[in-house]
Amino acid sequence: MYFTRRHIQILGVLAILISVGAWAMDLTGVVYVCPYCRMQRSVIGLLGLGMLSPVSLGWTGRYLATVIGFLGAVVAATQHFNGWKKISAGKFAFNEAIYIDPFLLSGCALFIIVGQVMLYYANPDARRLRF
Questions:
Q1: CB of 62 within 8 A of CB of 120?
Q2: Domain ranges for the chain
Q3: Which domain of life is it from (predicted)?
């Protein structure tokens, strides 16, 4: 199913809101400082900003989105895999100090980032723009 430009912009705004909300929780001290999480929320926000720009549908925008997206996906996958290593070693315990464990959040971030990058390529309008 293809998304029109309007739908991609709506999803871009949603991604920016997710990123800003996560950064607000970080900067107010609601969640602990985590470099993995900071990178993931920054990538989600940057990809969301790109989804608002018509230039992002050209090959340069898609290339930059892919590079930024891969960086975020690698960070999210690394954080998530570290959780699986703890499970395999028998040392994993859900963090009771926070409501949602970083192990689960990193999996969600991975899905969001990969989905965002896929939207850059799924848009039929991308074939018409040549910037």
A1: yes
A2: 5-127
A3: Bacteria
